[in-house]
Write a structure and sequence with these properties.
single chain; alpha/beta; Alkaline Phosphatase, subunit A; 2 domains; 9-stranded mixed sheet
Length: 498
């Protein structure tokens, strides 16, 4: 091993103290950058209506546009609910019960999952549920969602969603991070990064995991990649609130550590981190300091947030009595309202168990009962409090379900496999066109025949409603300007906007 030179320590300290080219431009953005912008703008920069905030945004936040929504709630139904049994009404299929679609599928060139590719037959399975038209749009909605049906005038339905993935993990990563590859930042993290926080005492991005009541459901496992920050600074990752015990782990001080001592400890750590950052310039040092400070503030804000005892009887009647039980979907929906009311930028509710490959009539009914009244209660509660206008609510899964049955088909039982070519979601509030239906599918809910909306188009539209130009919000990572919508063309869907 080559021995270190005698002056190695002085050399190392000099290296740490040296300012790099990247650090120089980062630290002088508001100096040289604003000066350069002023020279380009000339007298306009000095006009009476040109403020320091305008110059700062033009230099540091060029992706910002006029927002329709300040905050968002994403209700993520993991496993993919069947559009055929909930929203995409195809009454003519009742006359084609058990028709073998093997030749039809071959003509479509469809890629099938390993769960149905070996079936000898692909029997057509019409929905066994009743549908009725609702609201000014005349949207067909299943009997399984009576409460969502009665607020159809508040909703914007997209019947022509499509995706690239046919299996759960890549499909979930695509719909929640914009890519089927690992390591990408989630949509909530992008919103936190681009817009910042509305309440310094709470995280800008919070994740809730609702229990599913059906004991028979095929429950898909999910990972923190779906709410992780990827290459973005760690402070933008989603913070999970737990359904049992302390809402956030390790938030309480250890026994024998008074709050005053904790404050002095954090001040000491903060000073050490400031010195390290001055020498090295690693932004993760700042992230670590900010997380310590956020945790300290959350020690006061989270207990108040998690205490639902002050909610009125009328509120519980709106969401359903299950809202009184911590961890249920109804309780999570009520918590989502409390979070956005207190300034949390993005709330994501994960509800698993929507993967009905078999026993669909039984399990889908159970899942819908879990969420139907609470979704109605959430939208109406936001509306009554004057929050719906600038709160965007999104409801949906990662893909659709097949028109043919997986396994045995009977008059009262069937299952459906994964189907990426078309599915349905809905949105409410936050600048979307209420009481509308966008897109159409063919006679079998197999292909889109009008106004397709790719998952990336949905992302571009969500960012647009939240006040972000999806083509300009980027982050340099691994030598690339990373974006939520990636490099594949994506467009804001103007037909969804109010």
């Amino acid at each position: 091993m080559t021995p270190l030179p005698p002056d190695w320590q002085a050399t190392f300290e000099a290296y740490n103290a040296a300012i790099t080219r990247r650090q120089f431009f980062r630290s002088t953005t508001t100096g040289l950058g604003v000066a350069a912008l002023s020279s380009l703008l000339g007298s306009r920069a000095l006009a009476a209506d040109a403020s320091a905030d305008t110059l700062r945004m033009a230099m540091t936040e060029p992706w910002k546009i006029a927002p329709k929504a300040k905050r968002a709630i994403y209700i993520s139904l993991i496993g993919a609910p069947s559009q055929l049994d909930l929203f995409d009404y195809k009454p003519a299929l009742r006359n084609r019960f058990k028709e073998d679609l093997k030749d039809y599928l071959g003509g479509q060139g469809e890629r099938l999952t390993g769960m149905t590719a070996g079936q000898a037959q692909f029997p057509l399975a019409p929905s066994m549920f009743k549908f009725a038209q609702h609201g000014q749009s005349g949207m067909w909605i299943s009997e399984l969602l009576p409460n969502i049906a009665k607020m159809s005038n508040d909703l914007c339905f997209i019947r022509s969603m499509k995706t690239d993935a046919i299996n759960h993990e890549p499909a979930n990563q695509l719909v929640y991070t914009g890519s089927m590859q690992n390591g990408k930042a989630s949509i909530g993290s992008w919103l936190s990064y681009g817009l910042g926080t509305l309440n310094a005492d709470l995280p800008s991005f919070v994740v809730l995991h609702a229990k599913h009541s059906s004991p028979f459901s095929n429950v898909q496992a999910i990972s923190s990649r779906l709410w992780g920050s990827g290459y973005l600074p760690g402070k933008h990752a989603g913070v999970s609130l737990r359904t049992q015990g302390d809402p956030v782990l390790y938030l309480n001080d250890a026994p024998g550590i008074p709050r005053e001592l904790r404050r002095r400890m954090l001040d000491g750590l903060g000073e050490l981190n400031r010195r390290s950052y001055a020498q090295i310039g690693d932004p993760e040092i700042q992230t670590r300091t900010q997380q310590y400070e956020m945790a300290f503030r959350m020690q006061t804000s989270v207990p108040e947030l998690a205490d639902l005892s002050g909610e009125s009887a009328a509120t519980y009647a709106l969401y359903g009595e299950e809202a009184r039980t911590r961890g249920t979907f109804a309780s999570s929906a009520l918590m989502a309202r409390r979070l956005v009311e207190r300034g949390v930028r993005f709330v994501q509710i994960f509800h698993r168990g929507w993967d009905q490959h078999g026993s669909l009539p039984r399990d889908l009914a159970s899942q819908c009962k879990d969420v139907d009244q609470a979704c109605y209660g959430l939208v109406q509660d936001l509306k009554q409090r004057g929050l719906l206008e600038d709160t965007l609510v999104i409801w949906g899964g990662e893909f659709g379900r097949t028109v043919y049955s997986q396994g045995t088909l009977t008059e009262t039982n069937y299952g459906r496999d994964h189907h990426p070519r078309c599915f349905t979601i809905w949105m409410a509030g936050g600048g979307v066109k209420a009481g509308s239906v966008y897109g159409e599918t063919d006679e079998m809910s197999y292909n889109i025949v009008k106004d397709p909306v790719h998952v990336r188009d949905l992302h571009a539209t969500i960012l647009h409603l939240m006040g972000i130009d999806h083509e300009r919000l980027s982050f340099k990572a691994q030598g690339l300007d990373q974006r939520l919508t990636g490099v594949v063309p994506a467009s804001v869907v103007k037909g969804l906007l109010a």
